[in-house]
Amino acid sequence: MTYQEWWRKSTIYQVYPKSFMDTTGNGVGDIRGLIDKLDYLKNLGIDMVWLQPVYVSPQNDNGYDVADYCQINPDYGTMEDFDELVRELKSRGMELMLDIVVNHSSTEHRWFQESRKSRDNPYRDYYIWKDPGPDGGYPNNWQSKFGGPAWQYDETTGQYFLTLFDKTQADLNWENPKLREEVIKLMTFWAEKGVRGFRLDVINLISKDQQFPDDDVSVLPGDGRRFYTDGPRVHEFIKELNEKVFSPYQIVTVGEMSSTTLENCIRYSNPSEHEFSMTFSFHHLKVDYPHGQKWELMPYDFEQLKRLLSEWQVGMQQGGGWNALFLNNHDQPRALSRFTDDFQYRKEGAKLLATTLHGLQGTPYVFQGEEIGMPNPQWNDISELRDIESLNMYRIMQENGKTREEAFEIIKQRSRDNSRTPMQWNSDAQAGFTTGTPWIKVDERYPEINAEREMNDPDSIFNHYKRLISLRKEYPILTEGIYHRLDEAHPQVFAYSRSSENETLVVVSNFSNEAVEFEFPQDFVLEQLDGREHTLLIGNTEEKPALRKLISLSPFASYMWLIHDLKKLN
What we know:
alpha/beta, Immunoglobulin-like, 8-stranded parallel beta sheet, 16 helices, disordered C terminus, TIM Barrel
C-alpha cells in the first residue's frame, strides 16, 4: 500500500503517557509502560500510536510546555526506551506519531532564557516581545485561552512577551527564519529516529497579524483570536515544513486546528496543497457551549452535532480534504458521558458513538480508555483535579460571581482531567496502572470497567471497536464512499449513507434512551431487501434487524449495513 493510501484506511490510538501505564511505581506513566502494552494495541488493530509529549518539561501544562525538544523527560524514561518503543512498534507492523508543540515553548527552554537576558540577545527574536501600551499596560487586549491577559511582563528588559496559553508558555516568533530552521531541525531529529507521524499542536496559530491590533469585540468572542488564527503566513510556513521534513521522510501529519474554518481545513489537508495529511477541527465538540462559552452548561444540541459532522463530511469530500475523526481526546470530557447515558446504557452508548464515528470518511482516532467505555470520573472535591486550565477557571468563575458549588459543577463536566485519569487495566489496586500513588485519582468504577474484563467478553465495547477497525481495512467504501445525511432532523436519530458505484453503507443510530422508529426519506426507497442484498456489518444489540424502510430502534441502538445495488427514485 502506498504512503498516500495506508493511513486513510488506518486507525490511530492516542496515548496520554502520564496516565497510560506506570512501570516504576512513582505514579506517573512511562514509555516502558507503553512498550508493555503494545500487544494490547496490536490486538485492537491499531496501525499508528500517537504519543503525547514526553520531552523535558516543567509540566505546567502536562508536557505541552517543552523545555527541550530533543531530550526525553526522565519521568517518562530514557532515549534508549524511546528507541526501543519505535523498534517494538515496527516489529508489530505499527508506527509512531509524535506530538510536536511549536506554537510556543516553555519559558524554561534555553532559547527563552537567552532571549530575556537583553533586547539585543541573538535569541530575542525567537519570541514575540512588545513594549508596553501607551498607558504603560499590556501591548494589546488579547486574552489567554487559559484565562487572563495574553501578555507577561519581564522586569529585566521592560517588555512583555506573548503567552496565548499558560503564562509559562511563550509564543514562538515564526516570522524569524532562524526559528523556523530550528523547528525543521528538531522535526528532522525525530524523523531520523524512525518516527513516521507528527501531530502538530495548535499549529494554525503560528502566524500572527504583525500589527498586533486591539480586538474591538466586533467579532465574538473578542479575545484577539481572529488576529492569530489561520494567520496571514500560516500556509506558507506549513508548506515549508512539508517540503523540508514531511515529504522527504513520508511523515503522516495531523494538524490540530483551533477555531478554524472548513475552507482552511480543506486547504490544509488537500494533497495538492502539500501541507498536512489531515486536520482536527473542534466545532462539533462545542455543541454544548451556550453562546460559545465553554465554562457554562447546557444540554448538547443534537441537531447541531449532526449538522456540523455532515457539513464537514460533505465539505471535505468536495474540496479534496481529509478529516481526522474523533469524539475524545486529552482536552475533552469523555464523549460517553457527554452524549449518552454512561450508567444505565454505558455499553450501548459507547458502541453507538464508535459505530457512528467509524462509519464516516476520515482517519479514526481512539483515545485511551474509549475502547473500554471509560466515562468521566466521579469527582468529589476540587483538590482531586490537576489541570491548570480547570483550576484557573474555578478561581475566575468564583471571582465573577458563581458560588463554589456552581463553579465545581461546571468543572466536573468540563475539565480536561475527565480524560486524563489513569487507564483502567484490571480490577487490582489503582486499576493496575501503578503500584504506587497515581499522579491523579483513578475513577472508583474501575473494578467493573477495565481492559481485562473487556477483552474476556465477546460482546464487549473493546471487541466492538476491534470489529470496526477491521471493517475499515476490509471495505473500501469506508474510505471512499460519498456521504449523504438521511435523517431529516429526526429528534433522536442520526442516519447517513456512504455510497459508491456498486454499493452503499448505511448507519442508523438512536441517540436517546427511548425506543423510537425511523423511516427513511421518500427519495431513498429500499426494495426487496433480503439476506443476499444487504448485510448487517455491525450492531450493538442482541437483535439483528433487517434493513427496511421503517426501522424500530431500542435505546441507544446503532447499526451499520452494507447494501448492494441500492435503488433510488429520481
